[in-house]
Amino acid sequence: MSQKPQANWTSGRNSDGQLHASPFIRWAGGKRRLAHTLMETFPQDFNSRQHAFFEPFLGGGALTFALGNVDHQVYVPGKKLRVSDMNPDLIETYVVVKDSVEKLIRRLRVLEDRIDEKNYYVIRRDIPNSPVNRAARFIYLNKTCYNGLWRVNSDGLFNVPFDKAKTRKAKLFSEENLMACSKRLQGASIRHLSFEKAAMRARPGDLVYFDPPYIPLTPTSSFSAYSKEGFGEEQHHQLAEVIAELTKRGVYVLFSNSDTPLTRQIFRDCLILRSHPMRRSMSADGNNRKNVNEILGMNYSHLHGSSVGEFTLVSKPKDKTQILQ
């Protein structure tokens, strides 16, 4: 049997020379550095030809894009993607990238000449009427705001200040990458949904990856206000209940969060928990980037690759029925 050509990971291109799609926005807690490790911890029996991959907290989509590399052992075609988020502005932007990427690129070229403080606050204040222009605004604000945060007030209005260091320097987009992202998303289901409604669409044998807003390490480190509803301790308890229900239905679950006593307490009864050191890509003050431990949880024991050896086992559910064999 001939071996499959190897991807050129250094250049970010596959064996055919095509660019691997990668996140087109900055996102708190993004998984660029962890994506390939996560792929190696997929359940061994997950078959993307027959089953779907769900990501109900889409965010920057690092794992969804990484799974689009045809040279990788774990490849999920666009038609098997079920991605969603509770942030309506984010989801609208993904839909525009999928369906109207060339119009989006033309609008972003216009906005790249308007990267300064005065234009920023005008663009932040004025919400366009068309989906393409709103998506361009979303990307503009994401790339020029302070520390790449997406934070909204109780009315759902974006309220992060301008990052003065970005004045006339920020690069809003890569045309080649946006085109690659659009290609990657073809055939995908992209919906504005709560995580509960998104997960309940999964069927036995499907895989759901939960990467919710993290439980804060400190009282000032929470990023949960990226939607007006917020996401706190109560929602994490609800997520644990959803995971338990998915396990009963034979749905595989992979889960990421910060390694805190509360995380361990909430999810220890429904997932195998492992801890792994990870350099956080973003922090609340913009300067405090350091290695912290993160939790990886799963409701299955048979893993696809060997990277799980890099994780320290924290706990297993006492009830063995919570683990898919």
Short structural description:
With 325 residues, this protein is an alpha/beta fold. Helix content is 30%, strand content 13%. The chain folds into 2 domains: 35-87 and 188-322, 3-Layer(aba) Sandwich (Rossmann fold), CATH 3.40.50.150; 94-175, Orthogonal Bundle (Adenine-specific Methyltransferase, domain 2).
**What characterizes the major β-sheet?**
8 strands, mixed
Backbone structural class: alpha/beta
The CATH architecture classification of the largest domain is 3-Layer(aba) Sandwich
Share of β-strand residues: 5-15%
Counting DSSP H or I runs of 4 or more residues, the number of helices is: 10
Major beta sheet, strand line-up: 3-2-1-4-5-7-6-8
Number of domains: 2
* CATH domain fold name of the largest domain: Rossmann fold
